[in-house]
Design brief:
- With about 260 residues, the protein is of the alpha/beta class.
- It is built from ten helices and eight strands.
- About 40% of the residues lie in helices and about 15% in strands.
- Helix 2 packs across helix 3.
Length: about 260
């Protein structure tokens, strides 16, 4: 994997691009493999799937706030010489995409918000357990229950548990704190970029009304709900989410080099 601005990333050069570059940002405790191959390898797309600081193959420490993570994404765009991109994020990654659309609108052509909300509250008990290496697994199990993965996604649940238990406890705690502090609820109406909101109907961590409120607060935002899917909707229903993203990207005007 290449590296830019200290971040490792997966790059898919999908033939002659017919839409702006796409940047995928994973959620708390995740990495670029949080995105299935169907999305990382969208046809006729230039796709960058990042490992945020301290995650996956990226070195260093994680950030403590969504604003700080957003700054690192801007550094990444500068390093790869991309002036504007479509930013698609899952959960905490969606909060980063929202922040970029609010504070760096000139760098954003569109945003995709998957399993996200204008706020990302984390229960006090989950935060408390995540703050201690001796109890962090209790926090992880509670998070997985709220993700409400379908029976068909049992394997994803097992893999998610193993992934979260293998990352540094301090990294996961920092990510959860960043989520808990995030609040864009009073600023949604100022977002002017094209927006797609996607959620699984069974998600209890970022419930469907989170996505409904997002779509209702952002002018012109499109909302797509996916039945029988939970928080990891892009892994549970990869073809469906990839199809939605493909249609969304076609709606965004693209002039190469801009």
């Amino acid at each position: 994997m290449p590296i830019a601005a200290g971040l490792h990333y997966f790059l898919h050069e999908g033939g002659k691009p017919t839409s702006p570059p796409l940047v995928l940002i994973h959620g708390a405790g995740g990495d670029h493999l949080s995105w299935p191959a169907e999305i990382r390898n969208l046809s006729n797309r230039r796709v960058f799937a990042l490992d945020l600081p301290g995650h996956g193959k990226s070195t260093g420490s994680g950030c403590q706030t969504v604003d700080d993570y957003s700054g690192r994404v801007i550094d990444f765009l500068d390093a790869i010489r991309v002036s504007r991109a479509v930013i698609v994020g899952h959960a905490m990654g969606g909060a980063i995409a929202l922040t970029l659309a609010l504070d760096h609108a000139d760098r954003v052509r569109g945003i995709g918000l998957i399993s996200c909300g204008a706020q990302l509250p984390i229960a006090a008990s989950i935060l408390e357990n995540a703050s201690n290496p001796a109890t962090v697994q209790l926090s992880i199990r509670a998070l997985l229950e709220l993700m409400h993965l379908s029976r068909e996604a049992f394997d994803f649940k097992e893999r998610a548990f193993k992934k979260l238990t293998n990352i540094r406890q301090s990294l996961l705690y920092g990510d959860l704190c960043a989520c808990a502090q995030f609040d864009a609820s009073e600023r949604l109406s100022s977002i002017e970029t094209s927006t797609l909101v996607v959620c699984g109907t069974e998600d209890k961590l970022t419930p469907q009304h989170f996505s409904s409120n997002l779509a209702g607060g952002i002018n012109g935002a499109a909302l797509q709900t996916i039945d029988n899917a939970g928080h990891l909707v892009m892994l549970e229903k990869p073809h469906r989410v990839a199809g939605l993203l493909g249609v969304f990207l076609k709606t965004i005007p693209f002039i190469p080099g801009t």
